[in-house]
Amino acid sequence: MFKATLTIAWITCVAQAWIVPHPQNRPSTQLHVAAKIGRGFQRVKDSLTSAERSREDLKIGIAGFYDRSTKLWEEVWGDHLHHGYYVPADRTDHKQAQIDMIDEVLKWAGVDQATRVVDVGCGIGGSSRHIARKFPGCQTEGITLSPYQAGRGNELAAEQGLANQCRFQVADALDMPFADNSFDLIWSLESGEHMPDKKQFINELFRVCEPGGRIIVVTWCHRDLEPGETSLTKSEEKLLRKINRAYYLPQWCSVKDYVDLMEAQGATDVKRDDWSYIIAPFWKAVIKSSLNLKSVIGLLRSGFSTQRGAYAMFLMLRGYKKGLIKFGCLTCTKPMSKKTEKTVTIR
Ligand code: SAH
To answer: pTM for the whole thing?
Structure first.
């Protein structure tokens, strides 16, 4: 790998020196092409070394990744971009397993009513529409970084007669376009792993939640560190870096880190669970579903990042098997009065 990186770095330098002519006769188109080629090489190099993306690159990357891959996912899997609930483990109706995941999480969190819900990292709004039907009259707001997903979410809401209940827009979860105390249910299903600043993410969830409101975060985490450990092992870090590159993720944190962040906001009834065993059959099912002609053609058409995402399914499977990746469920209530915020350090 190191050798490959050096070779690519070398080719990049030579190509840039060779393509970019003398400053006096440097036409802007040549400059533009040279810069583009340079950026292309840099991207290949970053991919090969699983380099971490900057915050800005990550944000643009997430939007583009979901813009490109969501249509194919919806064709094969429907409108939920999350794991299914596999109890019993041999169930074969995967779409129902995904819907059950929403119901089981709500049950686990003790939520049997909601009037104003924000779906943070909403995909194409499968959770929002399900919750809107489950709790009649409730209003939902969904946010995503992907313009395609926001548009599709609104389209599906209109088709399903839910346009007056569910709205979707492009917005950043780290800086939400909602006033303080706006919602009684904060729902984030498999979007937390994309957040480059977990503290700011949790702070924002608490900010828009009304006092006494409920916060639910279901997200990919790495295992809790053992007493005496200060980091994951090198090989664990390496596996996560490869997954990050494919799925546009920043550094991961543990379920324990999330608990600390919630408690720092004054939440007293934090509940946590590890549902890795419940979702275990999911990735195998996704891999199986991609082994048909329609999926393969869709995959070939949808470009490199979706194909790399498909390959990363095997890495996810490995991470779960090793006990490195955890499907973390967290819930808590926002305190009625704001306590002094405690300091928590997350990588
Ligand atoms: N919760 C949805 C989608 C999960 S996919 C479902 O279960 O179907 C992850 C989602 O998180 C995508 O919609 C992506 O756009 C969104 N996301 C990632 N980072 C985000 C951010 N900073 N702000 C808002 N949405 C974000």
So the answer is: 0.85
